[in-house]
Specification:
This protein is mainly α. The chain has one domain: Up-down Bundle (Alpha-lytic protease prodomain-like), CATH 1.20.1510.10. Helices cover 76% and strands 0% of the residues. It is built from 7 helices and no strands. Helix 4 packs parallel to helix 6. The longest helix has 34 residues.
Amino acid sequence: MKEYLLHKPLLKTNFCSHAHDHTHEHNHSHFDARTTDKKILIVSLLMTSSMMIVQFVYSLLSNSLALLSDTLHMFSDVFALFLSYVAIIAVQNFKNKQKTFGYFRLEILVAFINALSIIVSAIFIIYEAINKLLNPVEIDAKTMMIVAFAGLLVNAINGFMMFKYANLNNINMKSAFLHMLSDLFGSLCVVIGGVIVYFTGIVYIDTILAIILSLLLLK
């Protein structure tokens, strides 16, 4: 009988004898993108957290609910940036044979938590706004404008860095960017509101702005 007709059983060692000599040297370019994303997140985190503290102090001194709401928005930004950074660290460093991408799903979970933090902030702002409508107080509009404008610059710089250099195809970075973008518009609203209150003396404008900002947070 011809040798090729002798169907010998395949041994497990023979079946796997090619042993994957190609060694998988592709390095997953998305990890390189995350290295840049980490640097952007660190810079944004430092700038935003510093501005958040300044806004919180002056929101209390100026009695501006709109500025306080923007401060809470900035707090949600800091929380979002921190979680986004932790997610990238986890994806990069916790890889193993079973999880070659690390804990990749953690980035999606962080995006979900970011959304929940926005909802909580918005509910708190609406509650405070209703209280201020019932019990209006005097507002230092000049301080409100100056501090809000400083916050506007910080958000603009961070938003530009993310838009220009971050990997916005990553849902984790995109959620952080959307946080920053919404806070940018929030700071703009507070600046405009401060101008109106300064020239008209209508303190209800501040409260109405706080409600608008809370709706902006929800959107």
